[in-house]
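Name: tRNA (guanine(46)-N(7))-methyltransferase
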Amino acid sequence: MARGGKRQGMAEGRAERKGQKAPRKRFYRTRAHSNPLSDMYFPVPSCPKEDAPETPKVEFADVGCGFGGLLIRLAPLFPDRLMVGMEIRDKVAEYVQERIANLRREHEGQYQNISCIRTNSQKFLVHYFCKGQLQKLFFLFPDPHFKAQNHRRRIISLSLLAEFATCWPPGAACTPSQTSLGAG
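Structure predicted for tRNA (guanine(46)-N(7))-methyltransferase:
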């Protein structure tokens, strides 16, 4: 990409996507943060049963999934569990969706248990899951807003944890550290 610079690189990225090659992060640049308090439009089911009443239920959710690394690593470890990544940034969610589609093409019959949706988990997480539906809820980098003036934008707060807890089964524990996933 010596001559032509950024425009040529973006054109190559679009050509790659049309040619069904693996997506590359550099063509999906976006801001590091997105304001979860803004009034962005997201198509959201009014209740979890409306989304897909007779389908198998998602058991693992990765809130703020970023570029989908955790989902892609967990998919082969738990092939019988459905997992969803939830990301607020549109280009990042698009990248993860294309990455999953590419993995499904490359590895036929695999990676059918993961998906990614663009949504605001702070506002709409409970619209996607029934009471007690989730076995695991992941927040890998929960505090990107470290300044005091941005505390209201944090995904981990007492009020939001109480809301998220409705998606966990009775007796579920919230642990602040890395724990065993119980693969096998």
